[in-house]
User: What shape does this take?
Amino acid sequence: MQDAVIISNISKIYKSGKESIHALDNVTLTIKEGEIFGLLGPNGAGKTTLISMLIGILKQDSGSISILGMDVARETSKIQNNINVVSGFSRSLISLSVEECLIYYCMLYNVKNPKAKVDRLLKKMGLYEARNLLAEDLSSGMRQKYLICKGLLNDPKILLLDEPTVGLDVESAILVRKMIKELKGNGMTILLTTHNMFEAEELCDNIAFINRGKIVSIGTPKELKSKIMSTRTVEIHCSDESCVLSSLKSLPGVKAKVKSPQIVHVNVTDYKKMKDIMLVLSSCKGEIYSVNELEPTFEEIYIKMINQSQGDSHE
Amino acid sequence: MNDSITRILSQVYKNLNSLRRNTFRMADVLIWPMIFLFTLTFFITYLGSDTSYLYVVILGMIGWRVIYFLNLDMVSSIAEENWAKTLAYLFASPISRMETAVGSAISGFVKACFVLVVYLLLTNLLYGFVVKDWGVFVLGMATLSVAGFTMGLFALSFAYFAKEEAFSISFILPDVFALLSGVYFSIDAVYPSWLLPFIRLLPTTQGFEVLKSTVGLGHPDLSMLVLTTGGWLLVAYLVNGWAYDKARKEGKLARLG
Assistant: This one.
């Protein structure tokens, strides 16, 4: 896969009176063609600043951005023809119908035969019947679909999605995620920001954690999980937790604690210890109902990564 | 070139479609200009003044509308996208700042032309007003159109940073310039002599002088008209470019969502 976006040593400082805020600090990352790249981080981490630079509405202080082999600073207009952006926080133009809004955007992007293009997208998104409604009157789910239509009008090679499922009900969010998967299936490169960790894990091929303007870590969801989890947790369901606990305490390098009645959590740093644990458990007087390894949730990974980057790790 | 025209027309499409659907905006074209026309012309006829004064007022109102609509549409096009939280989509598209400005100025000009036609018809019916010299009249209107566009570029420069506040500025600007430029009166008769050279540097002054000359009351100066209109347009273009780049650098141009 070729590189669709190359961001090299980007920095941005916002000045407000005497105060300076480092919005982005030497950010470097690469997005491959055809992948969904997730950009995750807390509010104010620098995600929107980075997207604003990619779409050409904000200039970096230093560093360079190359999109589809073109330099953002020099070939802004050419790049803007090949990308599009959808923000979950944006609304719609006032006093214009859904169809009029989309035709307006077609004109901005010089889309040939705009009416046919708009009709096709509206039908695909199930919005055709709502085409004559005022765009500002759409429900949040319909508005998000309308915005995705807007984002696809110019057949962009790269689509930037800034929290596309924010404020959506479960069904609408599932639908939007399905659409994003379909777009990836059609070979589109997607940059996604979201606070929904489940969504990020489900959709993204690669993820960058960003905090206080710095990239904390980059990798596939699996790589990120393995990076942060130096220990693994085994959950034991049993009839007598005190017996299990006292038996496990005799094993060196194994930390066990009672999570709740009949449930014991064991932290294991070395897999070779598993055999010893099983032997100890088999000698317990009480019943052992199950032994399972607990997979950390992506949310836990996110929290750990962000906390570590702030020098406040709970590990 | 064709692509650029389509992008320019996108602003006309947006502004005129939203005008069609919005009663308040429609009133700005259909109702307020008529109330304004009747208020001033009734007052002048009540005073029993010479018809040439009445005609100066009519011409002044026509010229003022051109400046008002061009300048206002250029700023409202940006301010409304900001209200609608879609401004980032506009600037993230391939449309340039000048294409945006020209497109919205055209929609303002269309509104001004509509009011102009209504004004000419009504004043002809009520007061027998006719344009005696269409060549001079068109020259005056063209000058004021460019002046309105120039004013719009300055207001837009402010709008890149201040958004809604720029909307108020764009309401005030035409009134200030119309007052300074002697829209309904002779600047020589009203302003102190030390102020006149500065006032003559305004393209609006030159434009209104041309319009007034169609009823034998203005003192147009063609070389000053070309110099001030072109000069101010160039300055406005440069200031607008500088403001756009500065706003883009400082992150004030538009925010996503």
Q: What stands out?
A: The CA atoms of residues 198 and 245 of chain B lie 30 Å apart. The longest helix of chain B spans residues 51-83. The mean pLDDT of chain B is 93.
